[in-house]
Amino acid sequence: MPHSALAVPALRGDPVNPVADNPVPTMAIAFLAVVLAGAVLWRVMAWFMHRRSLALTPAQLEIRSSFYRCRMPLAEMKLDQDALWTWTSTPN
Predict the structure, then answer these.
(1) Fewest CB within 10 A of the end CB: N or C in the chain?
(2) Hey, CA dihedral for 35, 38, 43, 44, is it positive or negative?
């Protein structure tokens, strides 16, 4: 919108409302606010969803995430009976 579109009504004495007469700045501010809010929400959710840890003590295995915690005693796992296998080999 050219500047003369705002200047001519002002020179004639008509009321000028730059926001209503030119909605581009208002739309740009609204767009930037939505983008900023989305970026902040994205970073907060990424922080919450990537908090993970795995801790092994002599007595237990502890798995922690943002909203989850599991403690499993090593004695209940029966590790001596388990075996590792790949897709190319068959389990016993």
Answers:
(1) C
(2) positive
